[in-house]
Amino acid sequence: MSTNTRPSPEIVTFGESMGLLTAKDTRGLEYAATLDKSFGGAESNLAIGVSRLGHTSGWFGRLGNDPIGNMILKAIRGEGVDVSRARISDKEPTGLMIRENASGKASVHYYRKLSAASAITPEDLDTDYIAGAQILHVTGITAAISASGLATVEAAIHIAKQAGVKVSFDPNLRLKLWSAEEARPVLLRLAEQADYFLPGLDEMKLLYNEEDDQKVLERLSAMNAVCIVKGGPDLTYVLVNGTLTEVPYFKADHVLDTVGAGDGFCAGFLSGLIKGYSPQEATRLGNLTGSMVIQAVGDWEALPTWEQVEAKLNNVAHVER
Predict the structure, then answer these.
(1) For a FRET experiment, which of 34, 66, 213, 288 has its CA 20 to 30 Å from that of 148?
(2) Considering just the CA atoms, what is the radius of gyration of the chain in Å?
């Protein structure tokens, strides 16, 4: 499908966005009296993060024609993200996730079977829209939610490669969607097609079935992609043409919510690439945005603006009043 009538955003992504209900009661969901309402999704989180950092981004996917779907679409649009290629379905509902923190143990319960997002197909792709971007970002979540989701990811990557658009891939391994054994051949195949591969170290240990950090890095160094490996000991690993660089984390003053840290990192990293930074410089920016996200609560609400990032880099004091 091609319906492009205006320039594409710099970064285009697509995937599953779900309603999010969070139980505030520490006794857990079963006994919680109230639930906070929001939404989340790795790809829409990233698109919002990129937009807040001063770049154009586009997100699309399928949402149900229901109150949750309408809320999600309006909120993403309200963050300056182009949602012109998103689809509203009258046939399938918007997926839902419910988060609880019972006795200090966080858990997420998903209600996504037969959701609108899982019904995405390659026919939902706008070829010109993807081909006009600078970077296409995809994740392993879309590949995991359905066979048609995987086919759509593969088709989008093909469009991007044909058009010379860089492909960014975050495996986002979700063991509630599939086992490591099921995910391994699929995610490693997709990684081989990426220009920028953004895994976590723990994910690669599962996908390579290897516990030794150095052996994991050695295997990654053989890939053609620039590999940015999150989750090292106080640092992020950058592998470019087999050369390893270690980029230190930014210290977080107080950690309130680690959810969304990876998406915040990816948003900062990709924004850095659009700004013309080297992979190492872009990783430093990603480390900073990731550290800022975990100091507030929410999947995407805490994603920083470029002004906030600059203030942090320049150590600008906050004036309360």
Answers:
(1) 66
(2) 19
pLDDT single digits (tens) 66-112: 999 999 999 999 999 999 999 999 999 999 999 998 777 788 999 99
Reduced to 3 states (helix: H, G, I; strand: E, B; else coil), residue 159 is helix
Measured from the Cβ of residue 236, the count of other Cβ atoms closer than 10 Å reads 25
The HSE-up count of residue 5 (CA atoms within 13 Å, CB side) is 4
CA 267 vs. chain centroid, Å, equals 8
| Active-site residue, from 126, 170, 263, 299 | 263
pTM for the whole thing?
0.93
Q: What DSSP letter does each residue of 17-68 carry, written as one string? A: -EEEEEE--TT-GGG-S-EEEEEE-HHHHHHHHHHHTT--EEEE-EEESSHH
In terms of C-beta density within 10 A (0-12 exposed, 13-18 middle, 19 or more buried), how is residue 233 classed?
Answer: exposed
CB 103, CB 97: distance < 8 Å:
no
CB 183 within 8 A of CB 144: yes
Distance between CA 321 and CA 26 in Å, rounded? 34
